[in-house]
User: Which sequence fits this backbone?
């Protein structure tokens, strides 16, 4: 993986030094909050409901054991012993104290990490497929390009004051695990007729108040044209994006109001203008970065131990069936470590758990870890013969829950337990749903189901693209939960449709239970997933289950 | 007569820890909602908020939040403000932890 060179290190250290003085000046009264706020946000420091929150970028979700251990150390030394992994592949600390933040940023810099551009109207952490470099279906590892984009966008003078924040996601696989169609720019690696790799460029996707599926602005972009093309999109957006209304400022609205053809025309014109300025320096840099992402030396060893264990141990088997994904190398597996133990807070890991994951990565995983937008941790390269040992270690610290992709593998944003923007809580709703379905012992029978919860219209919990989405709202001073159905965050992306009136806090879990009951009743068999059943049947049977009283009235 | 004024407290976050604080009648910042000054006059509320805003070295983002008189002092009315008096619901962190001590 990429390691900071002297330039990166000096840059990050300089920012830490700058911010250290800014914090001092805020505390001694020379800076007002109005002056300080934009400065702290530029360094990832928010003020939430009960405390400050520091959002640390994990570029394209990639970590090694040294970085993970440092995250654990920070959690213990300056926070309350845990961290929260987010849908943007970041980690958030919920309890830092203002005077400690410079020390935390220094500790991050020690391992080549920072919190720069995790807030503000700039290009945010570039997210990527969490199986990058390991997936069997991959054309190429998208992370070198993601790193190139990170370097290019960090402190880019033209793009520090965009109309609004800007999110880029990238995948190297046809199966989209990076929700590229719900990003300001989505990049999907494809091949052209000649077999050359390039990108399908998607623009104007986004969730939030006005959810939109991104549109293809360029079907095939040669790899070498990537930076100038992305720069052209940003520069068009920077000029034409609306600054008069915060709710209309994202590029999805620019694309929607201007029209895709017109946007394409402007982007291509700007691209033609700036393309000659890219004389190949970026490509030379990319080559260096690519070398840093060379695949690990895969081990050649028998996998019989794994197969025997698989047959013998039902607990291991259940875990292997849900939490492993096919690796490009047949002797290897991709391990998804669930941070969704039933009743736990989705995405949270204690310092101890982080250390165990770091140790396992170092010992069995070619020193690689990934954070997924689904708030789990991945060991991308584990030799199959090591899987029983990995599973045993994970079990000791509550990390062996066999539920990846199932109903209790819930994405939930922090909601009103932490977030100052929230209109309702998300975490306890997720906890209760997971516990309820665990009691029912139904989730393996239910099969693949993506349930996603947001605590307000900003949709950090991706509820619009959940097969079942839950949105927490404040209705006349009471928490109220709206359900959406049929959303999809993959290459067949779709925004879920609202099922009907919302449910009170104590009604939402039973409502979800009725909904899932309707699926079990109507599905054609175990092979038909919830989403497939919804697509075949439409909303009617699900609505009938959600609102039984109305169904009775209609029948009367 | 003018529309009835909903009583308020002045609340903010402490500059150093970010902890939720409330303005008392004798100009202190307390961590406890029930010690806050319950303000039932609009003009006075504006003055108290101005006073809070003049203390950026102590607090961040002061605002007026609805409250009602209770047995032991003012109580919050909206659930958001109730959560702010306690802390998150997933861990015993924040004010609820200090109260338990
Ligand atoms: S969706 Fe709303 S409540 Fe949840 S983290 Fe985002 S802004 Fe906060």
Assistant:
């Amino acid at each position: 993986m990429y390691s900071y060179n002297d330039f990166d290190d000096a840059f990050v250290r300089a920012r830490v030094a700058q911010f250290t003085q800014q914090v001092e000046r805020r505390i001694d009264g020379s800076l007002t909050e109005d002056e300080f706020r934009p400065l702290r946000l530029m360094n990832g420091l928010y003020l939430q409901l009960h405390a400050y929150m520091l959002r640390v970028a994990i570029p394209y979700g990639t970590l090694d054991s040294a970085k993970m251990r440092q995250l654990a150390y920070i959690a213990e030394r300056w926070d309350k012993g845990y961290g929260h992994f987010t849908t943007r592949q970041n980690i958030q600390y919920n309890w830092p104290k203002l005077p400690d933040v410079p020390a935390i940023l220094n500790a991050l810099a020690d391992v080549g990490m920072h919190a720069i551009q995790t807030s503000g109207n700039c290009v945010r952490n570039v997210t990527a497929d969490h199986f990058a470099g390991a997936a069997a279906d991959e054309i190429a590892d998208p992370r070198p390009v993601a790193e190139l984009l990170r370097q290019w966008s960090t402190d880019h003078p033209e793009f520090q004051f965009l109309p609004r924040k800007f999110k880029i996601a990238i995948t190297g696989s046809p199966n989209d695990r990076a929700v590229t169609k719900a990003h300001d720019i989505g990049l999907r690696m494809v091949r052209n007729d000649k077999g050359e790799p390039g990108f399908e460029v998607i623009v104007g996707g986004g969730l939030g108040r006005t959810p939109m599926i991104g549109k293809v602005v360029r079907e095939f972009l040669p790899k070498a044209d990537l930076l100038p093309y992305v720069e052209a999109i940003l520069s068009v957006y920077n000029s034409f994006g609306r600054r008069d209304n915060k709710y209309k400022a994202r590029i999805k609205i620019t694309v929607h109001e201007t029209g895709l053809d017109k946007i394409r025309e402007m982007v291509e014109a700007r691209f033609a203008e700036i393309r000659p300025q890219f004389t190949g320096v970026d490509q030379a840099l990319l080559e260096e970065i690519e070398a840093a992402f060379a695949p690990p030396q895969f081990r050649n060893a028998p996998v019989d131990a794994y197969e025997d264990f698989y047959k013998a141990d039902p607990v291991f088997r259940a875990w292997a069936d849900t939490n492993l994904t096919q690796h490009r190398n047949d002797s290897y597996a991709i391990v998804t470590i669930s941070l969704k133990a039933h009743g736990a807070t989705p995405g949270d890991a204690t310092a101890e758990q982080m250390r165990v994951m770091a140790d396992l990565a170092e010992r069995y995983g070619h020193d690689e870890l990934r954070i997924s937008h689904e708030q789990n941790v991945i060991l991308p390269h584990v030799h199959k013969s090591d899987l029983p040992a990995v599973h045993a270690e994970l079990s000791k610290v509550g990390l062996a829950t066999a539920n990846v992709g199932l109903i209790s593998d819930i994405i939930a944003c922090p909601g009103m337990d932490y977030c100052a923007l929230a209109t309702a809580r998300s975490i306890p709703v997720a906890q209760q749903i997971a516990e309820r379905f665990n009691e029912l012992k139904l989730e393996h029978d239910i099969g693949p189901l993506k349930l996603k919860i947001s605590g307000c219209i900003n949709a950090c919990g991706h509820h619009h693209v959940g097969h079942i989405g839950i949105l927490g709202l404040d209705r006349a001073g009471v928490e109220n939960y709206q359900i959406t159905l049929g959303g999809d965050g993959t290459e067949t992306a779709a925004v879920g449709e609202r099922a009907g009136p919302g449910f009170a806090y104590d009604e939402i879990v039973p409502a979800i239970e009725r909904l899932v009951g309707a699926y079990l009743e109507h599905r054609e068999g175990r092979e038909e997933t919830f989403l497939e059943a919804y697509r075949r049947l439409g909303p009617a049977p699900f609505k009938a289950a959600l609102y039984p009283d109305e169904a009775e009235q209609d029948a009367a | 007569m003018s529309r009835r004024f909903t009583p308020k407290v002045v609340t903010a976050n402490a500059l150093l820890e970010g902890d939720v604080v409330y303005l008392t009648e004798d100009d202190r910042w307390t961590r406890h909602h029930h010690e806050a000054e319950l303000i039932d006059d609009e003009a006075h509320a504006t003055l108290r908020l101005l006073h809070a805003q003049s203390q950026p070295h102590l607090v961040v983002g002061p605002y007026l939040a609805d409250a009602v008189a209770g047995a032991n002092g003012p109580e919050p009315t909206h659930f958001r403000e109730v959560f702010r008096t306690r802390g998150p619901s997933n861990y015993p962190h924040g004010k609820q932890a200090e109260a338990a001590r």
